[in-house]
Design goal:
There is one protein chain. The chain is α+β, with helices and mostly antiparallel strands and 713 residues long. It has 15 helices and 38 strands. Helix 12 links the parallel strand 29 and strand 30. Helix 5 packs parallel to helix 6 and helix 11 runs parallel beside helix 12. The structure holds (2R,3S,4R,5S)-2-(hydroxymethyl)piperidine-3,4,5-triol. (2R,3S,4R,5S)-2-(hydroxymethyl)piperidine-3,4,5-triol (DGJ) binds next to loops.
Length: 713
Amino acid sequence: MTAHEHVRFDAGEMTVIIACEAGAPPRFIYWGARISSSTTADMIRDLSIRQGAHGNEDDNIHPSLSLEPGLGFMGPSGISAHRDGKDWGSRFTVDQVEKSAHAVTIYASDPRTKIDMEYRIGCNPDTGLLSFTTQLTNRGDTPLSIDAMATICAPLPQHMGDIIGFTGRWGYEFQRQRLSRFSGAYLRENKRGRSSHDSFPGIILCADNAREQSGEAYGMHLAWAGNHRIRVDSISDGRCFASMGALFFPGEIKIAPGAAYESPPILAGYTASGLSALSQQFHSYVRDDILRPAVKQRPRPVHYNSWEAVYFNHDTAQLMAMADKAAAIGVERFVLDDGWFGSRRNDSLGLGDWTVSAEVYPDGLKPLIDHVTGLGMEMGIWFEPEMANPNSDIVRAHPEWVLGIEGIDQISFRKQVALDIARPEVSQYLFDHIDAILKEYDIGYIKWDMNRDISHPGGAGGYARSHAHVQALYALMARIRAAHPALEIESCASGGGRCDMGILAHTDRIWASDTNDAIDRQAVQRGASYFLPLNIIGAHVGPRKCHVTGRTLSIEMRTATAIMGHMGAEMNLLTEPQSDIAVLKKGIALYKRHRDLLHSGDHVRLDTADYLNAFGVVAGDKSEALFSVAYLKSHVATLPPPLQFAGLDAGAVYHLRLIWPHGWKAAVTPSIAERLNLADGTAFTGEALMKAGLQLPLSLPETVLLFHLARQD
Ligand code: DGJ
């Protein structure tokens, strides 16, 4: 393709057009609702002609994909690069464009600053989800420092009046914050060395009337497991730009002559059909393009995790007894958490010494693993490879492996330090030890934890290594997977501190939060669902009294909440009330019956009052659906409102059943549930369920009802 044409993709609900005129910077001229082929790119371009204004440049400056300083554009900059203060003022103009059916590469350069840019853009032909990756190559003969670089800067329509961002903390991740766009910059910077609990790298811009099933929305996600910057700039000429990129410490990115820097990808979606439709585009991407086929094809096994059951107090006989119980209630994967190695009897000792503790496991792990596998379960095991306790053999032997800034004491953070895994010998050490365990034992799963911020990421030579750390992490995971192709890995970072599509390219599940409090989990999992599909969101039934919040919630509520994810249990199965374990067993059976639907269907969140959380999953062919309705707290109205389902086939007849809790009775009977005998089910049209809705029965606060809908063909 010559460099005077437009790049255009029409897919899903959207059209994107990028002008690639020779000698000019590449630029978006349209990204929005799908347009027909009779509307040409030139028409759109001509309709967007802007002019100069008093007190501003005489003619309009076109913003480019990188908003580089040489444009003279007074809005945000997408890139800041220089050679010792020179060659900072790039203006990248198009040289060439290579286009295939669903992807394009735009080659641009600035011969004066000797920088080449390669913009790689992909478009999913079904959903219209776009992917952007930008590569910068240093064509000069001296090193080039990159202080900042957004993967892409996207102009968005001015009527996108709302920003939905994500905040949170340990034990309460993925909390949505919806605010009206304002003049100036919405800025989130994450320097924690992981994608963070408090700044998930995703953002949505939407019309102020956008809701779950209606309205225009744009979503962007940075697939990067490290530091990031997210910006939405509303500038004085009225325009709005959204950008995302990796965030660098000073001097961190220095590109040698001839070398290149490749940005992490941005995934970007557009819809005119509401926020749930936007999420579905991201879910398809994770399920179809990121997850490995073997993982996708295998039903997501029910987990048991030992952490909240025993913490560091490992005892083989007790764990075997726990495994017996787990197998009996239907668990399929038994994960041995922290505490099996070295001198790790508490969190101040032994982290980094990856050999089985002879003190706790005198005969190694084989007896326990044989017991677990003998019960028909798969064995999983915990590692935290990037970290070590100062009080460990490995740090005593190699203090130089610890990341830090010379002369400054490490900030204390869970009594551990981060290792400089970008040093080849550190990665080799980790690979050798993990590989040895995986070779010796029949282990199919690793929970890969990461429990501290990397606050002082200084490495060899005194340079910042945060970015290099993430690259080394990806490489280490890839190497382990290559050596053990059937192995699955979970990404955990004190819960949801590292949940993003960058890490998901190397892992198979995320541990969304350390809280197993079902009320808080409803919020965490709802927030996560804006970008992540249920089949990778780890959700466990915790103990009766939650260890994180101290709240006591019914087993029915805890179980229902975990069913709507990748289900597991994490409690002492020997000491929890056996009546609870009996209910859990039924819940596991229910999860198994419905997991294919839950993990492949379209995720539909419903708009409700804030004391409810309602959402469901509808099969792609709309033949079946499962909806969850959580009653989170007390409400002012005497009765809850009708629930308008969504995503169903309006013309079809569905058999609606209340399937959880078993034997449920309304707070005041008879309710609609008893009158219509919803436990056995009643038939309604999809239209009635979506337009009129189901009058919700009166349920107590802190309860969850699950409804199943089966189309009657
Ligand atoms: C933090 C994790 O999120 C927990 O689930 C557990 O694995 C602990 N670390 C172990 O140290």
